Structure formats: C-alpha cells, structure tokens
Amino acid sequence: MGTASSLVSPGEVIEDAYGGGGGEACEIPVEVKPKARLVRSSFRRGPRVIGASFKSTGSVDLECAAELERLRKDYEILRVSKSNEVAAMLKKEAKLDEENKRLRAELQALQKTYQKVLRERESALEAKYQAMERAATFEHDRDKVKRQFKIFRETKEKEIQDLLRAKRELEAKLQQLQAQGVQVYDPADSDSDDNHTRVEAPGAQCEYWSGPVLGSEPSMGSMMQLQQTFRGPEFAHSLIDVEGPFANVSRDDWDSAVASLLQVSPHVSQVLWSNTVRCYLMHTSETQTEVDIFVRSYSARLRKLCEGLGHFYVTASFPAESAGSYVAERRQEIERSSVCVLLLRSSVTSSLVEDAEEAFVKNPEARPLLLYLRGGESVSLSAPARELVERVTAADKAVKVKVIENSGDSEEGASLIHAQLEKVIKQELLGQEMADGESAVSCLAEGEGGEEDDFGDVPWDLHDEQEQAEAFQQAAALPTPTGCQKYMERLNDMVAAPPPIPPLLISGGPGSGKTLLLSKWIEFQQKHSPDTLILYHFVGRPLSNSAEPVLLIKRLTVKLLQHFWSISGLSMDPCKILEEFPRWLERLSARHHGNIIVIIDSIDQIQHAERHMKWLIDPLPVNVRAVVSVNVETCPQAWRLWPTLHLDPLNPKDVKALIAAECQGAQVKLSREQEKKLERHCRSASTCSALYVTVLAKMISESRVLDRTLEQCVQCQDTVSLYRLGLRVIMDTLSTDREKLIMKEVVCLICVSHNGVSESELLELFPDLAWPVLTSLLHRLQRLRIVAFGCGLLKFQHLQAGEAVRLEYMDTETSTSVCRERLIQYFSRQLREDRVTWRVADELPWLFLQQEDKAKLQHSLLNLFVSQNLYKRGHFSELLSYWQYVGRDKGSMAAEYFDSLKQYEKSCEGEDSMTRLANLYETLGRFLKDLGLLSQAVAPLQRSLEIRETALDPDHPSVARSLHQLAGVYVQWRKLGNAEQLYKQALEIGENAYGSEHTSVARELDSLALLYQKQNKYEQADKLRKRALKIRQKAARQKGNMYGFTLLRRRALQLEELTLGKDSADCSRTLNELGVLYYLQNNLDAAKVFLTRSLEMRRRVLGPDHPDCAQSLNNLAALHCERREYERAEELYESALDIRRRALAPDHPSLAYTVKHLAMLYKRRGKLEKAVPLYELALEIREKSFGPKHPSVATALVNLAVLYCQLKHHGEALPLYEQALKIYEDSLGRSHPRVGETLKNLAVLSYEEGDFEKAAELYKRAMEIKEAEPSLVGGKAPSRHSSGGDTFSLRSPALHPNASLQLGNR
C-alpha cells in the first residue's frame, strides 16, 4: 500500500462522497504540483471524482484563505498608499491654485506697468517730435538771422568801402589840381557854415550794383582773386574799377569756363533753326522725279537718324509750277533751312533763280550747300542755267559747295543726294563723326542719342535749355516798343537800390508786355554789365514742362553751378532740389566776382508757385537780385508787398505809333477817319494793351478788305475775341474745306498736347497734307501772333491765343478727348514700332494722365525705354508723379521695373540687344540710387556690369561707366573702401581706352578726389583734382577752337579792319585789344605782333612815359612769361613798374598789378632779395587801399612772412604771421580757412625754431579748422573774403607768375 497520493492522478480533482461543495481538510500529506493549478482546480465546479481524499480539500481552502489574506493586506496597503497620494495631490493642487492666483496678480500688475510705460513712451515720442520741430524752427530762425546779419555787415562794409573810394578819388583830384597850380579853397579856414561843402560819392547808392562787390577792386589786395594766378589779361585801364567782358579772367579760368559750359549745355549748331534739320530742295519740273523719289524713299531714313539724336527733320520743297505763289514762304524757308540742295538739269525757272541767288550767292557761308547736276550724253545746260552755275561758283570763295554729278537715272540721283545729305547732317550739323574717324554711337531704338559720357553727372535736357534760349531770343528780336526805355530805367534804379531788398515784382494785365520788357532788359544787362550772371526762365502755359517747379529750380541750380564747380553732386530728389537751391545761391553768390540776377517770367503760372517759391520770401544775399513778373489779377496776396513796377496800358500816342509802323511796313495807308475810329476804340484797358494793339495792327496790315476788317476788329473788346476773329479770318482765306478742317485740327492738337507738336508730326498725322499748304498755314498763324516755334514745336504765342482756340473749336469735353485720343494713337504707334523718342516720352504718359487712364499710363511707364528717356533727360520728378498717380510706392515700382527687365532680358539676343539691356539696368540702378534705395540699386548695376563684361570686353569703356556708377552707390552707402577700388578700376580702363588726358579720366580723378576728401586724405585729393583740372583745361582749348572762341575770332576780325588807318590813341587801344583776344585764342605769335605794334604806336602818339605804354609793356611781359622767357619778361615788368610809379597814385590798381607780378617773377627766378621790397610795397598799397585791419592786408603780411621764411629770417616772419592771424580772426572769424592756413604756417615756423609743443598745438587747431570747413561739390571753395590769390604755403612751390594782360578802355 502506498500513500493516498498514489491514488490520485495528476490533474484530477478530489470530491467528497456526498456531492458537497467540499469537506473539511484532513491532515493527510498530499503533494500538489503545481500550486497555482491546484488553487484554480479547487474552485472548479463539476462532477466529483470517486475515491478522492477529504484531507486534500481542506488544505486547498487553507491555502486560498492565506492567499486571500495576503491579497487583502496588499489591497489595504495599496488603498492607504493611494489615499496618501490623493491627499498629497490635493495639497499640491491647493498649492498650485495659490501660486496661480499669485502669478495672475503679478501678471495684472505687469500689464498695468506695461500700459503705463507705453503711455510714457508715447508721451516721450511726442515730446521728442515737438522738440525736433522747435529745433528746426530755431535752426531756420537762426539761419535767417545769420543771413540778415551777414547782409547787414556786408552792407555796412560796402558803405565804408564806398566812402574810402570817394575819399581816394577826392584826394587824387586834389593832387591833380595842386599839381596844375590851382589854389584849393579849404573850408576849414572859414567861419561860415555856408562854406562847408558836403561831399558825396556820385552814385554811391547804386555803385555796389554796377561795380564790383565789396573788396573786389583790381588791386594787389583784391578779394575776388580766389586763389588765381592772374595768368590772363588785365582787361581794363580805369581809375578804380575793372570793366569789360573779360575782367579779371585768366586764360586758364576761361578754359575752365568753356569746359563747364560745354559739359552742362552741349553745343547746338547754329545752323539748326529751332532744333530742326530743315532740308530745302530747289528744283524744276525736270528734277521733280528725283525729289519725289527722295521724299518717298529717303526722307524717313533721315528723319529716323535725326529723331534718334534728339532733333526733328523736315524736307521742304515747292512745286515748280506753283512756287511763284509762295514768295514769302520760300524766303522764310531759306532763312530757316539747315542745308539747301539745288537740283539742275538743263533749264531753270525764275523762282529757282531767286531762291538760288538768296541761298547760294548772297549768303553762301550761312549753311551747307549742295549742287546736284543731272547730266548725260544728250543733256546740256541752257544759258540761264550755265550763268546761274557760274554765279554760284564765283560766290563760293571758300569752296564749300558740294557738287553732286549724276549721269545715271533718277533713282541713282536720289540715292547720291541722300548719301551726301546724311554725311552733311552727321558731320557738319550734328557733329556726330569725330576727326579721328570714330563715329558716335547712336542708339536710335532707345532714343538716347548716343552713348552717355557724363559718368554720373546730373541728367540734363538740352531741349528745355534750348526752349528757354529761343523764348528769350524771339522776344528780344521784337522791336522795342515806345515807352519801354522808361520802364528799363526804373527797373535799373530798383535793382541798384542798396541791399537788402525783396524780389522785384513786374505786374501788368495779360498781354501788357512783361516778357518783352524782361527780354530787352536782359539784353541790356548782358551788354553793359558783362560781369553780372543772369539766370532767366520764361514760363509757358500751365502744365507744360516750363511750368514744372522742380525742373525750373533744377535748371537754375545747374546754370548757377556750371560757373563754379562740377554739377555731379547735385541731388535728384525733387524735395531736396527745391530745398537746396537757396543754399546754393547763398554759397555761390559769395564766390561770384560780380552780381547775380534771377529772373522768372510769369511766375504765377508755375504749379503751386507760393509753396515751391518760398525761398523768395527769405532775405537774398547782398549781391543777388530776384525779378519776377506776374499777372496783376493772379498775383498771390503775399507778394503784393514787394517793390512793384506796374506796366500801364499804352497811351493813345503809343497806340497810333505802333499801328502806323506796322501799316507802313505792309504799305497800307489808313484814312483819317479810320485812324480816328481806331483811336476811339483803343481807349479801354483791354483794348490798349500791347498785345491787343499788336494783333490789331497785324490784322489790319494783312487785310484784303480794310473797311470790313476794321469794322470787325472794333467789335472785339478784348484780346481773346480778337484772336477768335483772326482765326476766322485765316479760315476764310483757305480755299478748300479740307484745308479748313486741317487748320482746325492743327490748332486743336496744339491745344491738347503737353508741349506742342512739330511740323514732321503734323505731316505724319495728315498724310495727304502737302508741304506748301502746311507752311503757308503756319506762316499766317505766325503772322497774327497765334503760334510760334519753340525747340522745334509749335506752341501758342500767348495764353490768350490758346484760350481763343479752346472757345472757338473745343467748346465741349468730348472734342478735347477726341483730339487727345488722336495724339495717343499716333504716339502709341511709334511706341509699337520701337521709335521711343523724347517726344513719345514727353507726350504719351502725360496724355494718359489727362485722360485719367491709369492702366495705360502704367503700361507706358513699364516700357523701359520711355522711363529711361525721361530719367536721362532729368525729368525725375515727372516720372515720380506719374507713379504716384498710378498708386505705386517706391518699393512696388522698383519690383515692377525688375519684372519688366527680366521679361525683356529673355528676348535679348546679340551684342546690340545686350548692350541696350545693360543700359537699361544701369538706368534703373541710377534711378533707384536717386530714390535712396541703395540696397536695391546695387543689383541692377552689378547686372549691368556683368552684361558689359560678357557681351563687350572687360576693358571696354562701358565697363568703366558701370564701375563708376556702382562706386557712386557705395560712396552713398559709406562703403568707401569698395568705392575706391571700383573708381581705380574705372580710371585704369579709361586711361587704357582713351589715354591719360581724356575728359572721362578727369571725371574719374574728380570722383576719387572727392572720395579721398571724405576720408580726410587731403593731399591725395588735391593732387588728383589738379591733374583733372589740367585735363579739362586742355580739352577746353581743343573744343574752344570749334566753339568757345568763335566770338573772339569774329571780334578779332572786326578789330583788324579798324587798325588800317593812321596812328592814333584809339588805334593803339584796338591793337592792344587784338593782342589780348589772340592771347586768349592761344595764338601767342599773333598776340605778340599786335601788342608790339600797340606799344610802338603808343610811344609815337602818347610818349614813352604815358601809362598806356606801361599797359602794353605789362601785356608783353605777361606774354613772355607764358612762353617762359622770364628774363625778357622781367625787363618789361621793370619798365612798366617804373612808368606807373611816376605816373600813377601810390595805391592805384594798375601799379598794384605790376608790383604783384614782378614780385612773383622775382620769386620764381629765386631773386628773393629783390622781391622783398616789392612785397613790402604791396603791403603798403593794401594798407592804404583797405585800412590796416582788412583781410587783404593780412594776405600781404602772410606773403611777406613766407618770403622771410624762405630767406631764413624767422625772427622777422613771426610777428607778421601773428599780426595776420589776428586780422583774419577779427575780420573772418576763428574758423575761417584763412585762419587755418596761417596757423599751419605758424606751426611749421615753430617746428623749425624748435618749439615742438607749440607747433603741435597750432597744427592741431589748423587741422580742426580744415576738417570742420564745409565743402561744396568738387571740394572746398574759397571764401569771397579770401584775398590771397598769391598766398603761398611754406611747403608749397611758388605759383606760376604769369601776369595780367590789360585791355584799354575805349
């Protein structure tokens, strides 16, 4: 038997016998494996196995109970643990709630603090802006007070100078009377008050204006010298003042002036009448075929050539059978023509002979002439034709008539004429082919007129300048009306009044003659006051370019700056241009030797005149006058307080004289009854204005039925109605309805255009319009003063003429819109054909603006060549105003330009298109730079540089231009190191391409000099600036042979004719003047001949000791100095000095001149001991002339001290320097450049004496003054009070001692 476990199989369950759920456990050892299975089995319900043990069941229950107990304990432990965790979490939650409440409270406190700080910041910003406004107001008030004080000081100085001058004159007269033995009554010896004479200098109130400014006498101490060496002529020989057109101008200064003039105002051939190349074809019916072929096949080519260069082109010809009907028109066409072509075959007509006589025989030098001879085996010239050819050949003494012989057909003849005309236009009229054979690059598709060579100079529109010149010339060419002289005299008196004075106002009704008066007065001032700089501007109709305030002020600024410095630093920002003009005017007026007059005609027609002309309200500099004209009805109220010259209507006597003169010229005789009728009519203010009477006289003289015309005229009570009558009269003279319709449309197109329309545009707008009909119509409109030409464009001669056209033909807005639409279609067609000329850029965007079509306006602006044309001609503000109207800011505008350029770049293939693309990128970069978007300007300029380096060559001159423009951006960006490298690369390319003496090299040198000046590298900047100046002077002389000295040559030829008579003082003066003029032309041999003849004649006529002989000796000495014949020059100077010492007063200007130049010559040759007494004499003269405390005396002290230092007489030099320093500080201020120069010389002297500490202190102060000195464009400008044209630095070599030539008074 075994144990009970042996009876139980593994996995079986033991159950009790009674089927119960389980019995009491027995103490029977039972092995149960595994336990977990047993426990699970003990609870399994099912049939009880028979034969199981009761003991095993009880042990299982015990085991389950233990397990349950253990689980209960684990549960309890778990429950307690979780309860503790829950309690801890509740505590933590409560703690976090408290923390959250605290943080919320802190956040609310911080928010309150933030709001408080924000309010405080806004208050601080508001206070800051208020403080800035107060500071700006204070700055403006301070500047205004400074200007007023400066004017007051200069006025008082001028009064003192006038008194000193009057005193010297009286003393000189007293000495002359005593020398003649005349007893002079001394009022001090009398007890009677009646015997005391009050002495006043004649013209003391006006002398400031008519003579030089304060301290500008031509003496040794002349303050106008401005660091010049007086290499050129001393052009006068008067007691005190130097007069004449070349007063105190050296030849180098003349060269610089010519160079500046050519740079800013490019030369326009005088053969071109009103910016139009006019080709006049004279022909017969035999050569009509050549004319037809030429007009049909070749005129368009010449027109495209001229348009690309900025000019118009017309071919004028009259049919042989009807030429006799256009006598006046043919005569006018010959006067205006640029080139005449005479076409002959066998016979001639009377009209052809008349035209040929006028153009080829009477005035063959006026224009290029072509003679076309159609020959052949069976063709021979008739006797009249042969006689005409002989007369033409005899008149052509200079052999300038170009003969074209053709033995072929008419097609070949027209081709030969075109080839010769194209050559004449390029070479003689427009100067597009240079002497070395290089033709100028012309970008006709771009409308640029050639490669730009200004290298960043301010874009300049030649058309605006030519329009102003023509407006002045047309008005000045009119006959001077009766009564104009009294207004000119009153204007002279008002201008000559002592400063300060506000602008002068010329007022009058419409058509009262304000423009005519100003033109005549400008002409008078140019003739009698050549030292006066006159800046004039004639405003046309409102909304035209001439009425744009920014363009007006920019033009005046450029014309002002061209007389002094380069204009490359002038801002293009419209606001800055208006802001900076009064500052430029104040600064540059102080440097001008004479006086400055600013004249603006019809200033009330300027857009927002009061807002843009605020500078007129501020006090003007002492030597500046402003003269403006206004319509009395539209004059702003604030301007009515200015001194006013009112133009009254014509009196009956003047009306009668004006009408009689016009009728006499037209050979029209008025009856007494008709004269009385006109006299009764012209009595009201509107019917006796100058314009009304002029138009009335024209209509009477042109009338075919006098009584009828007179009756119609007296019904017109104002100028507008009279103009309307004139339009109807011209309309009645036209023969066909088509001609009448054309006339109406022509004047309407002029009325709706921006700046007018040209003849060539009218011929394209009306294809069926014949030239004779057009020129006849325009001739009649001009005769009645309805239209006039300006820069090739037809414009209304007066605002009232435009108003008459508007009332007569354009009474509704629809008709105006229709006319504008016709012009839009015409210019849009040119745009589609890639004919983007300056006319398209001027008219098309403006027409879209008037039509209020923003979409088309934006589309036209995104044509890159339109925007490029506007920008390159300086119409910066106009371009910005268009974009502002479209609603684009600077950033979006730049983005749209970039997108357009990218699209255009995809279509570019070939070198020409890539070159145009590079030009567009460069223009965009410059435009963005001027807008102040420097970061965006770099990308297009760099792209332009990449394209040019790839498409052209890395050493091409265009690459240098890109480098220059990119460097300019870096300069504004203050990245001076990058800019310096780019400038040096551009300089190297320019020297390799053009040579070291080309003007482009000079521009790079100027830019580098300005850059070095910004970096305080003054010595390097000075060297580069001097080298650039020499290059410009040489270029000026070369250009002067063509342009600058043309008037001098003409004057020289006139004077040569006056020297053929017998010996006389006048003839000797003429010889002296000829010598001076030839000297200016650099013809030293001819100058020597005439100066020597003048000296010999003066010795024979006047005696060897006459002051005029000293003048000739002085001029010959100057000439020998120029030729470096110093020994001969010294002898002549010494002879001149000896004569002048004996003949002239001790402080005479001519004596001072000779003393100065002889002293400089001694110093040049190393004869310092001989120079000392002359410098001492110069000091004595200046003390007598100006007083001991004048800056000019300080300059003489410095010159003498420098000489003593070179002689190692340091002890004698030191007190002179100290005395000069004190005078400079007292008279000019402690920060004046003269003070700095003297301190620097004192520092050098102290260093050489061994006082190093004092030298360092003086040098430091000198450098502080130099760094603080304000600089203008191109470097530091000398002060008007700088009297030292001959002041030398201790470390600098002596200046060239070329003396002044003198031009005697007549």
From TrEMBL:
The species this protein was found in: Scleropages formosus (Asian bonytongue)
Pfam family, one: TPR_12
Domain Nephrocystin 3 helical: 653-809
Key words of the record: Cell projection, Cilium, Coiled coil, Repeat, TPR repeat, Wnt signaling pathway
Domain Nephrocystin 3-like N-terminal positions: 504-618
Protein name per the record: Nephrocystin-3
Stretches of the chain forming a coiled coil according to its record: 86-180
TPR repeat copies, ranges: 1002-1035, 1110-1143, 1152-1185, 1194-1227, 1236-1269
